[in-house]
Amino acid sequence: MAGFWAVFAALGIFLGIIENCHGAQYFGKLIGKLSELHHGVSGEVYAVDARTLYIKDFTYDGQGPAAYFYASVYKAADKNGFRLRDENGSGEVIRRYRKEGITLTLPEGKTIHNIKIFYLWCEEFAVNFGDTKVAKNFEYPRPQKIEALKGVHSISSDNIVIVDAQTLLIPNLSYDGEAPGNYYNILTVTIVTVIGYRGNDFFNF
């Protein structure tokens, strides 16, 4: 049991770092608020990493005939931009949203460094429903390293990488598997990626 708590104490330290540095809720680095032009569009757009956007409290009435999430390498919100799939990976016309938090991923080959504006675009009538501009020289969050895991039950790892607000990489995690297994799911980190894990059934949920 001591080994179990050593592992999750270390993960608790990570969560504490995020909260202390960014406040109780960290969504990424703020790009800006969506302009409220048409169909009740509103929300705050954050950069999570190079290719990931998070929209906090996103609202849209769903009444546009052919509305999609768009971004552009140009400054104007127009047909020359490119589509983003919705939070479920669908390329269909977007639905109604009521103060929802959603995560969007830029297409392959595109990064936040490349884009100048994010917007909701109606393809049928060529209308911008709302947008936010990406500031010149905007710096998106990048992976950071914190200390490696150390503890009893042969717990060890290389330095932990904080990828973004939801993701940890724990390279070469080693654990002897002797801590009681029925306590493993007391604490949950949203996403933990373990690289080169060596041990006995550590993630036995």
From TrEMBL:
UniProt signal peptide: 1-23
Domain DM13, by residue range, is: 28-135
Taxonomic superkingdom? Eukaryota
KW Lipid biosynthesis (keyword) present: no
The question of whether Signal is a record keyword is answered with yes
Q: Which InterPro entries match?
A: DM13_domain, Spindle_Org/Thrombomodulin
Short name of any one Pfam family annotated for the protein: DM13
Keywords for this protein: Repeat, Signal
Database matches in PANTHER family: PROTEIN SKELETOR, ISOFORMS D_E, SKELETOR-RELATED
What is the protein name stated in its UniProt record?
A: DM13 domain-containing protein
* Species this chain originates from: Psylliodes chrysocephalus
